[in-house]
Amino acid sequence: MIYGFLIEVPHLPILNETVRNLFFHVAIWFAMFILLIVSVVYSIKYLKTSNVKMDIIASEFATMGIVFGLLGITTGSVWARFTWGDWWVNDPKLNATTIALLIYMAYFVLRSSIEDAQQKGRISAVYNIFAFAAAVPLIFILPRLTDSLHPGNGGNPGFSSYDLDNNLRTVFYPAVIGWTLLGVWFANLRIRIKKLSLVVDEYQLN
Q: Are 107 and 124 within 8 A, CB to CB?
């Protein structure tokens, strides 16, 4: 990532050196969606198998996905301060993304309100699938149908030759891989802790 601060970047109007936030803000969002996709896959697996370990994997990957979503919002807010002049603007992309994250946060409220493990797993899995299905149009489709300041939406160019050259690509794609692997690592640590807790609980019952 240090290399990302040393390379020469396109000198674009308004963006200037802040284009380096591409390695954080955009790469983190890519990683977030990868983590959420993994979470949805394991929710589907849980519905098919009722294996509590599938539910644990789904919930922990969703947790890391939301953590990355909050990091994405934070880095985006910093970027907005330098490019739009304010930390937050009334923009369809920003508002829709916030709604999507709030829908996902309700997933954890739902999980914490149900005590029975099997019931929690089934209801959470269904809600997780719904949350992802809602997030995709909210973040990728609806903002494109309206005027938006956000690059890639409302007619504004984004993620193209205008703001992404070969120098940026040499850092951006490894950054996506790096952030994703970091999220997977944290999720796996939490999964191992939860699985150990299950083993301890079973041992105490016996």
A: yes
Q: What is the pLDDT of residues 131-184, one digit of tens each?
A: 999 999 988 888 777 776 666 555 555 555 555 566 677 788 888 999 999 999
Cα gap 43→38, rounded to integer Å: 9
User: Which H/E stretch holds residue 81?
Assistant: helix 52-83
Give the domain extent around 173.
22-205
Cβ count within 10 A of residue 69: 25
In the block, residue with structure tokens 């508002």 = 95
**Backbone φ, ψ for residue 113 (5° rounding):** -95, -5
Q: How many CB atoms lie under 10 A from the CB of residue 38?
A: 21
The domain total for the chain is: 1
Q: Kindly state whether residue 9 falls inside one of the protein's structural domains.
A: no
Whole-number Cα distances in Å, 109 to 28, 63, 165: 24, 12, 42
Return the structure tokens found at 6: 């040393």
Instruction: Give yes or no for residue 4 having a pLDDT over 60.
Output: no
DSSP element (H, E) containing 82:
helix 52-83
Nearest alpha-carbon partner for 127 in 32, 59, 71? 59
What would the two tokens of residue 195 be?
Answer: 């699985």
Tokens of 127: 């809600």
